[in-house]
Design a protein that fits this description.
- The complex is a heterodimer of chains A (110) and B (142).
- Chain A has a single domain (2-108), classed as Transcription Regulator spoIIAA.
- Helices cover 40% and strands 34% of the residues of chain A.
- Chain A is built from 4 helices and 5 strands, in the order E-E-H-E-H-E-H-E-H.
- Chain A has helices at 25-37, 55-70, 82-90, 103-108; strands at residues 2-8, 11-20, 42-53, 74-78, 98-100.
- Chain A has a 5-stranded mixed beta sheet, sandwiched between helices.
- In chain A, helix 1 runs parallel beside helix 2 (55-70).
- Chain B has one domain (4-136): Histidine kinase-like ATPase, C-terminal domain (Heat Shock Protein 90).
- Chain B has 3 helices and 6 strands, in the order E-H-H-E-E-H-E-E-E.
- In chain B, strands 1, 2, 3, 4, 5 and 6 form a 6-stranded antiparallel beta sheet that branches.
- The longest helix of chain B has 22 residues, at 33-54.
- The model of chain B has no long low-confidence stretch (mean pLDDT 93).
- The chains are: A alpha/beta (110), B alpha+beta (142).
Chain lengths: 110, 142
């Protein structure tokens, strides 16, 4: 898994390539903690390059959501594959996260 | 497909090797991507539970995996060397009380994506069943 971050306006976009699973979740957590260190109030995780997420990956995304919320920020998810999105639907995590069809949509949202 | 049984050590680096072996064996069935995703996810979740909670990451303890396909019924069994867990007491990870919790989604996903899930009496073996016909799974709860 590779995570690239870039600044777009007042937001940080994390672009993830690969899988967010039991073995790669610690690396994803590290990448996200770096975003929190930058004090960004808005983070967008672009999951277009992620074809596989397991329950550890979902748990790490929940942790990321809670951590940014605790500093008054917002986390948005963008470009989920239909299969990855279905995991959010099954587990009802869709009610916790703001999920957008594209990164642009996520960035334009308030 | 004949019964196949193999073991992996309780080391997370073997998780993908286990699922790759099963998916490789299923290749000739030309299953759709969604079905293969479900099978991989359920096997890996069961193996993670076996390594982490059953065998407590003790590399000396094996996780025993077996699979068989007969008359459109794929059966996958994962067994660890632990004392087992009370599968009847797994909380619903979708509830407001649990939605932020770290654990509990693995078993829930298995029970949702497989057609049948059974445990042995001691709770250290899970059997997952998926019905497959004509390259597609059917009877799924999706």
């Amino acid at each position: 898994m590779v995570v690239k971050d870039r600044k777009v306006g007042d937001a940080i976009v994390l672009e993830v390539e690969g899988e967010i699973n039991f073995n790669s979740s610690p690396d994803f957590r590290k990448a996200f903690l770096k975003v929190l260190d930058s004090k960004a109030q808005k983070a967008v995780i672009n999951l277009a390059g992620v074809a596989y997420v397991d329950s550890s990956g979902l748990a790490t995304l929940v942790e990321a959501h809670q951590k940014i919320k605790s500093i008054g920020g917002k986390l948005k998810l963008a470009s989920l594959s239909p299969k990855v999105k279905s995991l959010f639907e099954i587990t009802k995590l869709e009610k916790l996260f703001e999920i957008y069809a594209t990164e642009d949509d996520a960035l334009k949202s308030a | 497909m004949n019964d196949t049984i193999f073991e992996i050590p309780s080391d997370p680096k073997y998780i993908k090797r286990a699922s790759a072996k099963l998916l490789g064996a299923l290749k000739k069935l030309k299953l759709d991507k969604e079905t293969l995703f479900d099978i991989r996810l359920c096997l890996e979740e069961a193996v993670i539970n076996a390594i982490k909670y059953g065998n407590k990451l003790d590399e000396r303890l094996p996780v025993v995996i077996s699979y068989t396909l007969s008359k459109g019924k794929l059966e996958i069994t994962v067994r660890d060397q632990g004392k087992g867990f009370d599968y009847k007491a797994t909380p619903d990870p979708r509830s407001d009380a649990n939605i932020l919790k770290h654990g509990g989604r693995g078993i829930f996903l298995i029970e949702h994506l497989m057609d049948e899930v059974r445990y042995n009496d001691s709770g250290n073996e899970i059997k997952m069943i998926k019905f497959i016909s004509g390259g597609k799974a059917h009877g799924s709860k999706r």
